[in-house]
Amino acid sequence: MSEKLCCGGEPITLIVLCGGGSRRMKKDKALLTVDGDTLIERVIGRLGSFFDEVLLSVGQDGGFDFFPWRKVVDGTPDLGPMEGIRSALAVSYTEHNAVVACDMPDVTIDPLRQMAGRAPDFDVVVPCCPGGRLEPLFAFYSRTCLPAMTALLGSGERSLLPLFERMRTYYTVLEDCSSLQSLNTPRDYEDYLKRNRG
Length: 198
Prior knowledge:
Number of strands: 10
CATH superfamily: Spore Coat Polysaccharide Biosynthesis Protein SpsA, Chain A
Order of helices and strands: EEEEHEEHEHEEHHEH
CATH class: Alpha Beta
Largest sheet: 8 strands, mixed
Structural class: alpha/beta
Oligomer: single chain
Helix content: 25-40%
Shape: globular
Strand content: 15-25%
Distance between the termini: 28 Å
Mean pLDDT: 91
Low-confidence stretches: none
């Protein structure tokens, strides 16, 4: 039995983002398979047991009814990942939530465990990778972000970066971000399968 992650002694929800348009992949990447599992199943198989609940953030076209986890449909379509996160935070049972994109097949619990230690004192905890690249789709978000997210989306903003400027944000420096590799294009997917055969 995995030891559950806590945030200041309180439980944490895992929110898996699967509502993207997959425009570059040309097909729903959440349902692509690696070693017989969909990417959703692979991510949750690696992380789900460490959290009190798993929420799937899905687009309004649905298509994930056969999965057993609770689903949250975007309140407004086509607003990007911030709307998916906002909609999930609005129904989450916990104050602190770990958000992970479904297209990261090699995610591990270690960076999330490191980030959970900072989450009680901040609204957002986001990794900063070598070169200064941020990973906003592998981060902790508190429900305190909801008003700012709603305001930003209402003003037409889609990027999460302005949210970080408005909230108490902690940037966790990760020396190795290879486990956060995402599969965005058919080439990414094919190359990943080739590297991991056998």
